[in-house]
Amino acid sequence: MGNLSEIDVSPVVHEITEIVRAEKCVVSLEERLGNLGFRFDPKVVEKVLKRCFKVPHLALRFFNWVKVREGFHHTSEIYNTMLSIAGEAKEFGLMEELVKEMEMNSSEKSIKTWTILVSQYGKAKLIGKALLVFDNMKKCGCEPDVSAYKIMIRSLCNAGKGDIALEFYKEVVQKEMLLDLNLYKMVMNCAARLGDVDVVHSVANDMIKISQIPEHDVYVYMLKSFCASGRIKEALELIRDLKSKEVSIDDDYFKTLVEGLCRAGRISDALEIVDIMKRRDLVDEKVHGFIISGHLRKNDLSKALVLFQEMKESGYLPLASTYTELMQCLFKLNEYQKGCELYDEMLQGGVQPDSVAITAMVAGHVRQNHISEAWKAFESMKDYGIRTTWKSYSVFIKELCRVSRTDEIFKVLNKMQDSKIAIGDEIFHWVISCMEKRGEMDNVEKVKQLQRISNETCRRQELHVELNHNQIEQEKMNSVLVKPPSKAYSEQDLKEICKILSSSTNWCFVQEALEKCAVQFTPELILEILRKCEMNGNTALQFFSWVGKQAGYHHSTETYNMAIKIAGRGKDFKHMRNLFFEMRRKRYIISPDTWTIMIMQYGRAGLTEIALRVFGEMKGNGCNPTGSTYKYLVILLCGRKGRKVDDAVKIFQEMIHAGYIPDKELIETYLGCLSEVSKLQAARSCIDSLCKVGFTRPLSYSLYVQALCRAGRLEEALALLDEVEEDRPKLDQYIYGSVVHGLLRRGQTGEALAKVESMKQVGVYPTVHVYTSLIVHFFKEKQIERALETFAEMQEQGCEPTVVTYSALIRGYVNVGKVIEAWNVFNHMKTKGPYPDFKTYSMFISCLCKVGKSEKALQLISEMLDSGIVPSNINFRTIFFGLNREGKQDLARSVLHKKSALISSRKFLN
To answer: Source organism's superkingdom (predicted)?
Structure first.
């Protein structure tokens, strides 16, 4: 193969890797490799193995095949790679065989080889084997380096072998090796747990003298080590020692000590420290949280709640963790309603819930058998931008097992699979045990089959990963209706095809390049390619048509759904229908999602008459609408473009009768539309329906009040409040933001501000909604300083600005002539987040054109396209008229060309 330093071997590596990883072929792997005619160089073999890191069975098969090739010998580097692969797969027997093979072949075991062995055994907590390897390394004359020592110490600490870890640490010190900060902290914690105060001080001295870590930080770590291990006496002695050395005791020390005392149940001592902190003005919500947590550890809920109330009355906003601990305690004591009220209070106070808080709510709802409420809470994680973790799913399933809700357990398991989260044998064991106790043996078999499929999927995941691989984040789904693809394809293949599709706007050139590539197409790969390239609809649809004609490949329902979606988004409705008829002709399954996608695409274009016709066709063909079908159709019928309110009312009622529960997005849109067009009787009917399907009375009324306020019907909204008596305080918390918004729109600023202050008096602080309404109002009144003061107060209170808040700032700045400041806010959004959405771009374009900055607005069109946001006809029209008004006719004509080019690029051109 020539000199590898001069030759690019990546094409060869890629070709071999594809053969190794392609399991389902008629011709055997060995025969296909033999037919290549390559000379297998060790460097190439090593690179191929690294790319097979996640398919160890295939890596071993290739490893064994290549070693018997004439003239080929495995190098130490190849053995090292194979040892890492075996270790990650927990194939420890194979690791031992590989070591023996290295010895038989006189292959040198380098420091890297020994370190890999120590690391793999250590990670698996096979400490005996790790120690034996480390000892053998020394006996073989291979002196362990700092990496080997670090791995050994970390493994011992993680396995709870602190005493042995300290012996290794002493060796490190003698050899004058430097450790990283985390490892020093681990050793210090081990020493503290063992009660070896001298070693804790010794480690601290090493951190200061050898690693030059600041004294203040080191002393805080010492204090945390003592507190975390329950060594309060030693912690207090350390504080006294520091005082004698005249070390300044700041809030870091105090907070650490308070937390440690509370964990140890010594709350009275902690309160003495808090009194000192109060005199120095060092107490904050975190300190209050420690004390509340301490009371809860002692099962003293009443004291915790008293302190919680005092904390709020003193102007402190509790942390999400404090709310969560209280909620969990209330749910545990069967105080379900109080726990829910606490969660509502947290949201109304502008405290952003985290995954732990929401998961606690899910558990609380399930224990009361309020399953629909549990699902609403669980799904709300997406609204807060929280990624649902394995832990959240596992809690949900565990609680469902407690109440024996088999049907719901299957729903959660399926959702985990759809989200590409490995379920794991632990969860399967809970579920199987639960079903066996209930005698549901048919369901047990279904779960066991699901377990087999799940384990096989995990085993076969084929990611393009190097030995020091980084996890590649999956792109978020851009539609709830087109299912995310499985990862049964190569990332390299995906990148290669996407690169080809974006290389030219001329399909002939693209097709020529596609026919030269050697990628094996699967429906999963095609689905992700279409998803990545959907902005360029013409090329994506040409590719869809071309790949469907390739030998050995067949589309799936999901790939057709995606193609239909792309055609519809490009308003190429003729081709969208052709694809649908093609599906039917070729006998593909026409799923409810297929129909729903077509309904959505017509509706978004304002063609609601046709959307309704397709909905009728769907039912006429025996396909029952899903909750998503009903939701999106009602939302589209309520929209300004193509609004059909009577049909929306009819379909909403049909949805309720079919047993589907509307979500918050649908209810807000529906009630907002009814309030705008004075269909108040239908709105009242909606509220009654919500109460019947499980929505609380305050929540149902609050949604209606919000809709009336937004529609400018403040009197009707306030009159509605008189109907609610027993739940009035809770309702006030829900709706006061909407009332403030309504008052500000009416110009009743004094009443609005009085409402805000009155709510503060009862412990309810302004939400992001309230702050944003105030900012909009002050800018409108040209009270710029008050608007900016409100924004500053919002941030000080820990209330995170949303896209709407930043959009209000941008609009406000432009309207008062501060265009540079508006751009600064816009650029801040792009760099720090939240990223501007379609509404933000459209608003900014409109504002810039109004003040004679249409050329700047034109730049935003390109930015939108680069960000994957499709500009609307109105965006183009606004800039076109703006440029003409400013006498820039040539630029105005270029806008028409841009618009025409965008339309062409999104339609299927035969």
So the answer is: Eukaryota
Domain match, 806 and 782 both = yes
How far is 598 from 604, CA to CA, in rounded Å?
10
Among candidates 574, 624, 575, 635, which has minimal Cα distance to 600? 635
For residue 639, the 8-state DSSP code is S
Note whether 866 and 906 are same-domain residues.
yes
pLDDT (tens digit per residue) in 434-455: 888 777 887 888 888 777 666 5
Burial 32-61 (b: 16+ CB within 10 A, else e): ebeeeeeebbbbbbbbbbbbbbbbbebbbb
Residues in CB range of 502: below 8 A, 6 or more apart: 533, 536, 539
Whether residue 769 is found in the same domain as residue 780: yes
- What's 779's domain CATH number? 1.25.40.10
> Do residue 819 and residue 859 come from a single domain?
no
Q: Are residues 866 and 902 in the same domain?
A: yes
**Can you say whether residue 383 is alpha, beta or left, with left for phi > 0 and alpha for psi between -120 and 50 degrees?**
alpha
Residues in the chain: 910
Q: How many domains does the chain have?
A: 2
Closest CA to 590 of 619, 566, 570: 619
For 108, 376, 426, the CA distances from 396, given in Å and listed in that order, are 51, 12, 14
Phi first, then psi: what are they for 650, rounded to 5°?
A: -60, -45
| Separation of alpha carbons 457 and 276, rounded Å | 58
Range of the domain at 847: 838-910
Half-sphere exposure of 767 (CA within 13 A, CB side): 18
* Cα distances (angstroms) measured from residue 92 to each of 122, 135, 138, 681: 12, 18, 22, 71
Picking from 281, 291, 288, 303, the residue whose alpha carbon sits closest to that of residue 260 is: 291
Q: What is the pLDDT of residues 702-720, one digit of tens each?
A: 888 889 988 888 888 888 8
Query: Of 836, 861, 892, at which residue does a domain stop?
Result: 836
pLDDT at 564 over 90: yes
